[in-house]
Amino acid sequence: MPRTVILGVIGSDAHVVGITILEQALSAAGFEVINLGVQTAQDEFVSAAKSHDAEAVLVSSLYGHARQDCEGFHQRLDEAGLDIPTYVGGNLAVGQDDFGTTREVFREMGFDRVFDAETDPEEAIAALRRDLQIPTTETDGVKVDS
Ligand code: B12
Asked: 120 vs 47, 60, 84, 117, 126, CA distance in Å?
């Protein structure tokens, strides 16, 4: 039975290429991907996660407003009774000279893993397999440090 994950670009962000690649890679790796597309509101992530009984939520943001767009996101998940891994990735801040700081900011906001724009989709797949305790095969050895 495929494991279901929710994927989307949050806020007013319209960058679609990254999530299209992620969707293809995740699907090829055996995940059932509910791709909410671009310009997705927080509530849409939450209701999709609930209605599809998803096991993880993957949020993408490229245009530099991720922090504002993700404010209160985990509170909404909590209110909906959802306690599942949340990942965020992309160009999460304007500039991004120090991604370590950006990563800390998003971790403090409640995200379990924070990925930069250089992330290979295989890294996210390896992280999901680890967090959802899916036996690894071909992703053995892929470094997960996000
Ligand atoms: C194409 C593009 C556009 C196109 C988008 C077309 C479309 N519908 O997709 C257009 C021209 C519309 C556009 C508009 C804008 N853009 Co633009 N755009 C780009 C550009 C050149 C490429 C993005 C792309 O497709 N990359 C290819 C994909 C494969 O890579 P990716 O998106 O990074 O995704 C990968 C990773 O980031 C990662 N990833 C992404 N999300 C997630 C999530 C998770 C959970 C995980 C694990 C991984 C992950 O995995 C993906 C696959 O490998 C980038 C610059 C760049 N070189 O990245 C700027 C860029 C993203 N844009 C930028 C900006 C500022 C804008 C605008 C605000 C400009 C403006 N003032 O109008 C608007 C925003 C409009 C909007 N509402 O979103 C900035 C963002 C700056 C920042 N964050 O600091 C960038 C970085 C350009 C720059 N250097 O200034 N843009």
From this structure: 28, 14, 22, 9, 10
Residue closest by Cα to atom 20 of ligand 1: 15
Substitution candidate for ligand 1 out of 15, 33, 73 with most atoms within 8 A of CB: 15
DSSP string, 122-138: HHHHHHHHHHTTPPPST
- Confirm or reject: Cβ of 117 under 6 Å from ligand 1: yes
pTM: 0.95
In tens, the pLDDT along 31-71 reads 999 999 999 999 999 999 999 999 999 999 999 999 999 99
Interval 73-85: pLDDT, tens: 999 999 999 999 9
Q: Which residues share a beta bridge with 4?
A: 32
Look-up of token digits 């995940």: 31
- Residue with token string 């090829």: 28
